[in-house]
Design brief:
Blueprint lengths: L1 H22 L2 E5 L6 E7 L2 E4 L10 E4 L5 E10 L4 E5 L21 E6 L7 E11 L2 E2 L5 E2 L2 E4 L11 E3 L5 E6 L7 E5 H14 L5 E2 L2 E8 L2 E9 L4 H5 L6 E5 L2 E2 L3 H7 L8 E8 L2 E8 L1 E2 L10
Antiparallel strand pairs: 1-2, 1-4, 2-3, 3-6, 4-5, 5-6, 7-8, 7-12, 8-11, 9-10, 11-14, 12-13, 13-14, 15-22, 16-17, 17-18, 18-19, 18-20, 20-21
């Protein structure tokens, strides 16, 4: 019994040490009325938080671990992955110690951290419940790894880190990507989005300017064009309402996400070859992929 109590006490101390270590790079973000959110000092001078908690782009401040409150500058946001980036003066606090989310397995103990004021960090305790490969959030953003836990994302914890038992940070916690589950935006996704937001203030995504819905065809899957906007890549390529796209660059169309995978930021300016069924006959149409207008949701491809 004594050994058991000793082991529990040792684990408890280890988790408390992990909170202390990780919280050195965790700040409170004051970018909405009343309730602050949490942010992580991801790299020197760069704070990452969740996009949904940044309601204002001016007069933003952050509270540091020592209680000092400093001004922050809005750098950009990406609704698709629920991430936002702020700039603060370099050297303001320690930089996050990042881990590798790929090493986490269901059952591993993890912590969610929050900081709402100068009173110190707050923590929630739980376990990894599921992991997996790349997936697409309902907001349209591509997430590099599925990382779900049974942690409770308390009010103000959004934008805070997922921390392992050694104090390493494996990503940013969001309650908005996969309701009502606690989902973590993994390190790889955060790094990719942060780089784009710092460069241009938004994440570029490909766009052809047509709305579609999945249908079944004799060949398998397909996408039926239900609307086409004027002066868009789809219109300029000669696509028409009622056309059914059955293949992309010679590959059979298996799902709507297959098209979304093609329309990445790297695809802008490239040509996409479509196999289209029109009036019962199949033809090839080449479309020059444009950049999706800012603020455009998932529905406008």
């Amino acid at each position: 019994m004594t050994d058991s109590r000793s082991n529990i006490a040792a684990l408890s101390d280890q988790l408390a040490d992990a909170v202390e270590a990780a919280s050195a790079s965790v700040v409170a973000v004051h970018a909405r009325p009343r309730l602050p959110s949490t942010g992580v000092h991801w790299r020197d001078g760069v704070v990452v938080t969740t996009e949904g908690t940044v309601r204002q782009e001016e007069d933003i401040t952050v509270s540091l671990p020592d209680g000092k409150r400093i001004s922050a500058t809005f750098a950009g946001r990406d609704r698709g992955t629920d991430l936002a980036v702020l700039r603060i003066p370099t050297g303001s606090l320690g930089v996050a110690k990042l881990g590798d989310p790929a090493v986490l397995r269901p059952g591993n103990l993890v912590l969610a951290l929050g900081r709402l004021d100068e009173d110190g960090p707050r923590a929630a305790f739980g376990a990894v419940s599921a992991t997996g490969g790349k997936w697409r959030a309902w907001k349209g953003g591509e997430i590099d790894r599925w990382l779900q836990s049974d942690l409770t994302i308390y009010p103000g914890f959004g934008g805070g880190p997922l921390v392992d038992s050694t104090g390493q940070i494996h990503g940013i916690n969001s309650g908005a990507l996969s309701r009502p589950l606690a989902t973590t935006i993994p390190v790889g996704t955060v790094n990719r989005v942060v780089a784009q937001l710092l460069e241009r203030g938004y994440v570029a995504r490909g766009w052809i300017g047509a709305a579609m819905q999945p249908v079944r065809t004799d060949e398998g899957g397909g996408l039926l064009l239900v609307s086409i906007e004027k002066d868009t890549p789809a219109a300029k390529a000669g696509l028409l309402l009622g056309d059914v796209i059955v293949a992309l660059d010679g590959k059979s169309l298996e799902s709507f996400d297959q098209l979304l995978d093609v329309l990445s930021g790297e695809s802008v300016g490239k040509k996409l070859s479509l196999d289209v069924v029109r009036a019962g006959k199949q033809r090839k149409i080449e479309v020059a992929i444009g950049e999706r207008p800012r603020g455009r949701g998932r529905g406008g491809r």
